[in-house]
């Protein structure tokens, strides 16, 4: 029996980066979490401890900060592409890179040029993979919490001896959306594409009369693909943030879908992918990312 080294990578995870761009008294901030991972001819460091081909993770961290100073960060996809291409082109032993970036939301306080409020826990995301001269971009959004107080039903499911859930023709539907979409190429207006994809998903969630969260998930992905030709595939992970009707009968009160308790766990987790049947091959786009 032989023992061999399998796929491996290494890098600097969760570098916190905040930049301030000043245009007179008007400031713009970017708040990012950047993770870098490199792969290539790295067997020696694993097998013998020879680090001659290992670009230190501390150097990767410093590169993130230096690049943020040397040129404007811009869109997170562009920044990730710059970093990934730099690592692959500057290090002979490195053949591939994966750059993950989360952008944290800040909103300018009304009437103030340089004061901000943390908008929400929602994060704009990107995952850029570089392999030689090829590049793949998977962008998305995480912790996008949405709720509709009607326009959702759930019924017609199998019943067995362990079923206690009652069918309903009117329920609260709430979820925290994690969406990732794979771009067909890299010549994209990233900011416009993100803004419009997010808007499409929100509109579809609100407008679609839902018979299941699965149906809503598919409708959201389908709407994005119908409207945005630059997107090849959408993957969605949507936990069902359950809101259960409170039984007020013990108090002589009728609860007409007005009072609920929100249960944080356990929860149903609905996940799926929607893609074009002629979508280009995904290549390494999804490597080292969660399935959804």
UniProtKB/TrEMBL annotation:
PROSITE patterns: URICASE (PS00366). The keyword Methyltransferase does not apply. InterPro entries: Uricase, Uricase_CS. Pathway: Purine metabolism; urate degradation; (S)-allantoin from urate: step 1/3. Its EC number is 1.7.3.3. It catalyses: urate + O2 + H2O = 5-hydroxyisourate + H2O2. Gene3D superfamilies: Urate Oxidase (3.10.270.10). The keyword Cytoplasm does not apply. Keywords: Oxidoreductase, Purine metabolism. It is an enzyme of class 1 (oxidoreductase). It comes from the Bacteria. Catalyzes the oxidation of uric acid to 5-hydroxyisourate, which is further processed to form (S)-allantoin. Belongs to the uricase family. This is Uricase. The gene is pucL.
């Amino acid at each position: 029996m032989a023992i061999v080294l399998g796929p491996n990578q290494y890098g600097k995870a969760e570098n916190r980066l905040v930049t301030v761009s000043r245009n007179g008294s008007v400031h713009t901030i970017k708040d990012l979490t950047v993770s870098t991972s490199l792969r290539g001819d790295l067997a020696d460091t694993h097998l013998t401890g020879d680090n001659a081909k290992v670009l230190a993770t501390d150097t990767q961290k410093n590169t993130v900060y230096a690049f943020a100073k040397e040129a404007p960060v811009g869109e997170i996809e562009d920044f990730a592409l710059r970093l990934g291409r730099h690592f692959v082109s500057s290090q002979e032993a490195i053949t591939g890179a994966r750059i993950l970036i989360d952008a944290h939301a800040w909103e300018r306080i009304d009437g103030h040029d340089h004061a901000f409020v943390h908008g929400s826990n929602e994060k704009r995301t990107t995952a850029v993979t570089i392999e030689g001269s090829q590049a793949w971009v998977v962008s998305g959004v995480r912790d996008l919490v949405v709720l509709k107080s009607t326009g959702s039903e759930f019924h017609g499911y199998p019943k067995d001896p362990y079923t206690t859930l009652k069918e309903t023709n009117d329920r609260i539907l709430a979820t925290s959306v994690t969406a990732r979409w794979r771009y067909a190429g890299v010549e994209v207006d990233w900011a416009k594409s993100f803004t419009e994809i997010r808007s499409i998903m929100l509109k579809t969630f609100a407008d679609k009369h839902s018979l299941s969260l699965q149906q809503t998930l598919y409708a959201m992905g389908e709407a994005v693909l119908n409207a945005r030709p630059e997107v090849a595939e959408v993957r969605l992970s949507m936990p069902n943030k359950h809101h259960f009707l409170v039984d007020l009968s013990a108090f002589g009160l009728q609860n007409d879908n007005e009072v609920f308790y929100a249960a944080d766990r356990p929860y149903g987790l609905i996940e799926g992918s929607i893609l074009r049947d002629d979508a280009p091959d995904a290549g390494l786009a999804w490597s080292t990312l969660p399935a959804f």
